[in-house]
Specification:
It is a single chain. The protein is mainly β. Helix content is 4%, strand content 41%. The chain has helices at residues 214-218, 442-454, and strands spanning 10-12, 33-39, 45-46, 51-57, 63-64, 68-74, 83-90, 97-104, 113-119, 123-124, 133-139, 145-146, 161-162, 166-170, 173-176, 185-187, 201-204, 221-223, 242-243, 254-260, 270-274, 281-289, 302-310, 321-328, 339-349, 354-362, 368-377, 380-385, 388-394, 404-411, 423-436, 459-461. The strands form 6 sheets. Strands 17, 19, 20, 22, 27, 28, 29, 31 and 32 form a 9-stranded antiparallel sheet that branches. It has an 8-stranded mixed sheet with strand order 1-26-25-24-23-30-21-18. The protein has a 6-stranded antiparallel sheet with strand order 15-14-6-9-8-16, with no helix packed on it. Strand 27 (368-377) and strand 28 form a beta hairpin. The chain is elongated, with a radius of gyration of 24 Å. The relative contact order is 0.18.
């Protein structure tokens, strides 16, 4: 839920239908590939190695990307050093790109490891290309990497060109490039946590009288009033910016209000959060996003959210995690108009800013009510909007520690329109539901919520505190 100078994955769902990459055809079919490479990190040492690829079909046969592997060879900084992979941007969608690390035994002076890039889906048509794949990897301890002694590194390659020091394999057969001389490779398996069965639920339809209702605290929610980020520096978080009005269905809803007159002192934001006790399972909420203020001039860069989070204990804290639904009706973070983000965070550093995350986005308006479902299970994070899969993340971005559940409404610093006329924005939440250690489909979530309401059940919490 912070500023998105994204080093994690920047994925365009609108491009996900692009035909993608290669495979073994029938006997006698001409399957031919070549790889172009460039790097955006040209120094002898770097915070991250940044190999960018474009895979091109020069044959006459299409094939699934799932059979294709790309190997980038490098020399580890030490025999015990661990590395982490991420996709920053890919025309074929970062959600389909995987990265694992393997070893070469015996190694050479320039290679004893490799990054193996694969694909979970997609097809590369004959004569087509994947387009830009902006990839990166870094040391697990975030120290600088020496890359000048890496076999596949090309410091002078700042524009795409054919590069034979990276190899391409189809179903185990080498199709492009020359591997370093050495022993056979061994892939390091990825181990991910898994969830168990149902271990409790939380349901709340926000039937409270006001922000001062004592049931809010007894139900383990908090109305934020403390200063600080995110948003406009110096903005306040008044308790009365949280209310519980009746809505058209006859139910009550949580309502967040944010107002501004263009100044820090005249800017107010709102947040409503649950205690930290959530990790694996299903999270869901029915949220009303707004494309325009309820009063005053339009155009502020405002963020409307539903998210889970573990607090950051220190810069690049490995125990930190966050999964966000964020809607920006007027754009922001370099975007000119409405955009919806689903973002999964590994960690971050405030100064100088460094974000370690991956996200998907759709540039479209989401004004009105929407059913948001987040599934966290088995090493995979899935985001659904109105029953449709919006994003899927995993790997380093999978949470490791218990989180809180949050809704907040805030203005992006530097994104206020140049007007002193006060304007007010609203975000509403009809209900919240969580099933601990259980993957619940969007349709099942709605069925369970409807059953609670049919029985006049307003609140349930059987999830134990950590």
């Amino acid at each position: 839920m912070r500023r998105k100078l994204l080093i994690g994955g920047l994925v365009s769902a609108l491009l996900a239908a692009l035909a993608a990459v290669i495979a073994a055809g029938p006997a006698g079919a001409a399957v031919s590939l070549r790889l172009q490479y460039k790097t955006s990190a040209t120094g002898a040492t770097a915070d991250q190695v940044e190999p960018w690829f474009n895979l091109i079909s020069t044959g006459t046969t299409a094939a699934p990307l799932s059979g294709i592997k790309i190997r980038y060879y490098f020399k580890a900084d030490s025999s015990t050093q661990q590395y982490r992979f991420a996709c920053s941007w890919a025309v074929v969608s970062c959600s389909t790109v995987t990265g694992t690390f393997g070893t070469i035994t015996p190694g050479t002076a320039t290679a004893d490891r490799y990054l193996e890039v694969g694909f979970t889906s997609g097809t590369l048509a004959a004569g087509a290309q994947t387009g830009d794949m902006q990839l990166r990897f870094h040391r697990a301890d975030w120290q600088r990497i020496t890359q000048s002694d890496d076999y596949s590194f090309g410091a002078a390659r700042t524009t795409y060109a054919d590069w034979t020091k990276v190899t391409v394999h189809q179903n185990g057969t080498l199709l492009w490039g020359t591997a370093p001389t050495g022993g056979g490779p061994t892939v390091t398996p990825t181990v991910t946590p898994t969830g168990g069965g149902n271990a409790g639920v939380v349901f709340d339809d926000f039937t409270y009288t006001s922000a001062d209702d004592p049931n809010i605290a007894s139900h383990r929610w908090t109305v934020r009033t403390n200063s600080g980020g995110p948003g406009v520096p110096g903005a306040s978080w008044p308790k009365n910016n949280v209310s519980f009005p009746s809505i058209a269905t006859g139910n009550q809803a949580l309502q967040l209000r944010a107002v501004s007159d263009g100044t820090s002192g005249g800017t107010q934001q709102a947040e409503f959060l649950h205690q930290r006790k959530f990790l694996e399972g299903t999270y869901a909420a029915r949220v009303k996003f707004s494309d325009a203020p309820v009063s005053g001039p339009d155009g502020d860069h405002i963020v409307q959210t539903f998210f889970t989070i573990t607090p950051l204990a220190a810069d690049l804290d490995p125990g930190y995690s966050e999964q966000d639904f964020e809607y920006l009706p007027n754009g922001g973070w370099g975007e000119p108009s409405a955009i919806m983000y689903a973002t999964s965070w590994e960690t971050y550093r405030n100064d100088p800013w460094l974000a370690v995350n991956v996200h998907n986005e759709v540039r479209a308006g989401y004004d009105g009510w929407h059913d948001l479902v987040l599934q966290v299970s088995g090493g995979t994070i899935r985001y659904y909007i109105d029953g449709a899969l919006f994003a899927e993340h995993g790997g380093d971005y999978y949470p490791e520690t218990v989180q809180s559940v949050n809704f907040n409404l805030w203005f992006i610093s530097g994104g206020l329109v140049g007007s002193s006329t006060q304007r007010a924005y609203h975000q509403q939440v009809d209900w919240f539901y969580h099933a601990k250690n259980e993957v619940v489909s969007p349709a099942q979530v709605l069925s369970r919520v409807n059953a609670y309401r049919a029985s006049s059940t307003r609140w349930v919490d059987t999830v134990p505190a950590p």
